Amino acid sequence: MEIVSRFFRPPAGSYFLFGPRGTGKSLWTQIHYPDAIRLDLLDPKVFRDYTAHPEQLREVVEANPAAHHVVIDEVQKIPELLSVVHALIESKKNRQFILTGSSARKLKRSGVDLMAGRAVLRTLHPYMAAELGRRFDLVQFLQIGMVPLVVEAGAPADVLASYSALYLREEVQVEGLVRNIGAFSRFLEAVSFSHGSALNVSNVARDCQVERKTVEGYVEILEDLLLSYRVPVFTRRAKRELAAHPKLYFFDTGVFRSLRPQGPLDRPEEIDGAALEGFVAQHLRAWIAYSGDKKELFYWRTRSGVEVDFVIYGVSGITAIEVKNSAQIRSEDLRGLRSFHQDYSRSQSLFLYRGRERRKIGDVLCVPIAEFLSQLRPGQPLWAKM
Hints:
By secondary structure, this protein is of the alpha/beta class. It folds into 2 domains: 15-123, 3-Layer(aba) Sandwich (Rossmann fold); 130-386, no CATH class. It contains 16 helices and 14 strands. The protein has helices spanning 25-32, 44-52, 56-62, 81-90, 105-110, 129-132, 138-144, 148-151, 156-173, 181-192, 201-208, 212-224, 253-259, 268-291, 335-343, 369-375; strands at 15-18, 37-40, 69-73, 96-101, 120-123, 197-198, 228-231, 247-250, 295-301, 307-314, 317-323, 348-353, 359-361, 364-368. A 6-stranded mixed beta sheet has the order 9-10-11-12-14-13, with helices on both faces. Helix 10 crosses helix 11, helix 11 (201-208) crosses helix 12 and helix 13 (253-259) packs antiparallel against helix 14. The longest helix has 24 residues, at 268-291. The mean pLDDT is 91.
């Protein structure tokens, strides 16, 4: 994997570093903590040793007093280690623990609460366009996504094709998260049609021929494995009747494409539009997470169907963002932004499209998507030139 300077900045104390497989957590910790005590729980021998004797961690740490950093990769594999980590943190020996994980499921159920706030939670996301600099090409990365494992591979398409199989084998099947792996595989295909849309659990259940309650559990597994997330409706001081259900996105547009079936009845522009919207969404999530200030990501949709793709809400203000997979700007494309601005007059409006020119149409700033993503940097305004 090529070394790319990441925007992620670690906290001063101990912390959990979560992120889906392949986002570069292990590489990042190797670069930033080269002299750390390191436990890789994906190593079968290490896993067996510490599963049988989690207290062995204390012995190793106390035998290396000069080591100020302790990295435990894939800590969710052995949640019992957190009790030992907690005790070591309480001993106040000036050590920093970095606990990486690609699944929050076991920790949510049996481990994180034991830390009692002693370790904060941080996330590592797929690459952002600005991290890649001149390497960033919108057309290319809309196809393969921004997962570092895929981007840096010699054959990105092959790695991407096996990515979901990796999760099915190593996370879902091995950990026994579902009883019927075939049904879960069908669910992954069915739910891919919901990417960028309000999730209709009943429709997904019908498509993959399982009960509604089972699908609800499957969606929870996807979120616990950090493969998907939901964006809620913006309802602050609402002046209209709004939609009730959040939208669902896969964490990376390349992973979405690898799961989304394609055939004679599937319109390419429909898939491309969902992929582009998700591509912007994953950048906004990373920008919010890495910026460190309190911002939240929403979408806005009225009962009558008027919609804005994204709303960024925080102490610095409100920004409404519409994304269109088109090189042209039509008046009807701006309808949602104008309606939102009527209800929230202090909001800024941003229209992202596939054209080449920046334009100002009324109160709406229209910006080429590639240009917007290339300048999007944590800690800086969403759009510096607004």
